[in-house]
From TrEMBL:
Protein keywords: Membrane, Transmembrane, Transmembrane helix
Its membrane topology: Multi-pass membrane protein
Keyword Cell cycle: no
Pfam entry (one): MauE
Composition bias type Basic and acidic residues, residue spans: 1-15
Organism: Nocardioides bruguierae
Record flagged with keyword Transmembrane helix: yes
Listed name of the protein: DoxX family membrane protein
GO BP: any one term: methylamine metabolic process
Compartmental location: Membrane
Domain Methylamine utilisation protein MauE: 35-166
Stretches that traverse the bilayer: 35-54, 75-99, 105-124
GO cellular component: membrane
Region feature (Disordered): 1-24
Length: 187
């Protein structure tokens, strides 16, 4: 008699890896993955919400930040600078609430890839700008080693977003509460 409770196979596929032929499960097992996902959702979502709330009061500051990277045509800069904080807020709220987790994580990952590329090119070209990630932006006297740490931060957030793309089912998510069929009903 085994003291280890094994969920039905469908639960393994939904929340974690399938068991190996010897009955063991690789990390993060079916019980751990959703908790890792919750942590990823809260961290990435929280960062997006904070970043957007710091930018929303001064939309022109966000436009200056986008312009400082010197990669986009001027005709695009004002629109992108104005829209970016709103996009960040929506993505952050969706992740915090656990609604449309995979699509929100995809948008998050795409934004982070663009941000890493933008910061990397600014660093490589010798531009002295504030990334504008949490407000601010534009030219600064000396960004020092901030580019390196901004890239490290964004790569970490990118990895967390990628986790959520691959494994969007997490603990304390509103999505199954709002969009699941009642027990006993199948759609």
């Amino acid at each position: 008699m085994s003291l280890v409770h094994r969920a039905p196979d469908s639960a393994h596929h939904a929340e974690g890896p399938a068991p190996r032929s010897d009955g063991s499960v690789s990390w993060p097992g079916p019980g751990v993955g959703p908790w890792v996902g919750l942590a990823a959702r809260l961290v990435v979502g929280g960062v997006w919400v904070v970043a957007s709330l710091l930018k929303l009061p001064d939309p022109q500051q966000s436009v200056r930040a986008v312009r400082a990277y010197e990669v986009l045509p001027e005709a695009v800069v004002p629109t992108l600078g104005a829209l970016l904080p709103g996009i960040e807020l929506v993505v952050g709220l969706l992740l915090l609430l656990g609604l449309a987790t995979r699509p929100a994580a995809v948008v998050s990952a795409v934004l982070l890839v663009v941000f890493v590329a933008a910061i990397s090119q600014a660093w490589a070209r010798g531009l002295t700008i504030d990334c504008g990630c949490f407000g601010g932006g534009g030219q600064v006297a000396d960004p020092g080693s901030s580019y390196f740490w901004e890239i490290v931060r964004d790569v970490g957030l990118l990895l967390a977003s990628a986790w959520l793309v691959a494994r969007p089912r997490t603990r304390m998510s509103l999505h199954p509460v709002l969009f699941s069929a009642p027990r006993g009903h199948r759609g």
